[in-house]
């Protein structure tokens, strides 16, 4: 038996016309979105009892061990500017993720909010991808010279604004 929150999440995906895969035996949806810079794999997990939904994406490439400190600076500085969600790094395997979580009161899940969470995760993942690529393309010997705050100001790396 699925929770009411998971049913609402499934309805939100169907209403948006998004292709997705349901993970058997779990309240989990997986999906892939084509964004401006990259394909964004998404993992949506629902914890129906407490009313929690967590939407997580993985950035497309792993960070080499030599570049993880610079990438962590990029993520920390990016997180400081975010209003919703946060970037995370698995230090051991070099995976970068973006996660947003929301708690709904019992019976109050809103499919528009769920769709908004998905949109936010896809947009933020797509927005960070070229900046992450720039850091990872920097030769190891030049990482100390890399000015992360200056890199973050590069508007040429941003995706175009969404069409209304």
Describe the structure in your own words.
The protein is an alpha+beta fold. Helix content is 36%, strand content 24%. Strands 1-2-3-4-6-5 form a 6-stranded antiparallel beta sheet. Strand 2 (28-34) and strand 3 form a beta hairpin. Helix 2 runs antiparallel to helix 3 (111-137). The N and C termini lie far apart (39 Å). The mean pLDDT is 95.
Summarize the structure in short.
The protein has 164 residues and is an alpha+beta fold. The protein has helices spanning 4-16, 68-81, 111-137, 148-152; strands at residues 21-22, 28-34, 39-47, 52-58, 86-90, 95-103.
Characteristic terms for this protein:
164 residues, alpha+beta, six-stranded antiparallel beta sheet, 4 helices, 6 strands, 24% strand, elongated
Secondary structure: elements and pairs:
Blueprint: H1 4-16, E1 21-22, E2 28-34, E3 39-47, E4 52-58, H2 68-81, E5 86-90, E6 95-103, H3 111-137, H4 148-152
Antiparallel strand pairs: 1-2, 2-3, 3-4, 4-6, 5-6
Helix pairs in contact: 1-3, 2-3
């Amino acid at each position: 038996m699925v929770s009411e929150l998971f049913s609402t999440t499934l309805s939100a995906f169907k209403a948006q016309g998004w292709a997705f895969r349901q993970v058997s035996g779990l309240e989990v949806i997986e999906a892939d979105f084509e964004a401006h810079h990259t394909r964004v794999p998404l993992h949506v997990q629902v914890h129906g009892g407490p009313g929690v939904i967590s939407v997580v994406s993985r950035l497309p490439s792993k960070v080499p061990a030599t570049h993880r400190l610079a990438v962590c600076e990029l993520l920390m500085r990016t997180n400081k500017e975010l209003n919703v969600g946060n970037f995370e790094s698995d230090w051991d395997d070099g995976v970068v993720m973006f996660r947003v979580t929301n708690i709904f009161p019992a019976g109050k899940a809103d499919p528009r909010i769920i769709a908004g969470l998905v949109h936010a995760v896809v947009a933020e993942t797509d927005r960070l991808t070229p900046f992450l690529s720039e850091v990872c393309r920097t030769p190891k010997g030049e990482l100390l010279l890399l000015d992360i705050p200056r890199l973050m100001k590069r508007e040429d790396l941003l995706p175009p604004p969404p069409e209304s």
